[in-house]
């Protein structure tokens, strides 16, 4: 068997044209998908737990669970910004007053302070809804399925309660995704405020 070798000559001008028409430093924005619970091995974890991206990239979280289990993606500057699920709100009530909701398994929890003031425990909107809290505790509520640009200076940013698509309870905001574009390099840690042992990390280069 014999081989025939042929020499191919590429003109220098053509080669120079090919090289100069492929920019080497352009970075197109990319998107990374993270599953929030229900990854097949653990319902209470992010998968992947840690992602590495470039500044300007976006991470999108979705809840793929088959049952109606909510999760959040929440960035906290420190633990003092952790939102309790419920807060006491003072009300003027007499001891004979009662609150009832027809056709509901509901009975408000009434607590009495040392000075005799009564309070009814109600839900905390910052625990359940998409929200950003900047310096000075300035609160901005975000749209459902928000696309948020994170600078890293926020005190608290949360997706709100994310439900599997089509499985949000009646009356609950049907939040099924949360997307964050990371402007600045750094390490960003987050957790689920419903299941605080669920943690994740985004490393931005």
Topology diagram in text:
Elements: H1 12-20, E1 31-36, E2 46-47, E3 50-53, E4 58-62, E5 74-76, E6 86-90, E7 110-112, E8 118-123, H2 125-128, E9 131-134, E10 138-141, E11 147-150, E12 156-158, E13 177-182, E14 186-191, E15 199-204
Parallel strand pairs: 1-4, 3-15, 11-13
Antiparallel strand pairs: 1-2, 4-13, 5-12, 6-8, 7-8, 9-10, 9-12, 14-15
Q: How big a fraction of the residues is strand?
A: 25-35%
CATH architecture of the largest domain: Sandwich
Outline the low-pLDDT stretches.
1-26
Work out the oligomeric state of the chains in this entry. single chain
* Shape by Cα distribution: globular
Report how far the terminal alpha carbons are from each other: 54 Å
CATH topology (level 3) name of the largest domain: Immunoglobulin-like
**Helix tally?**
2
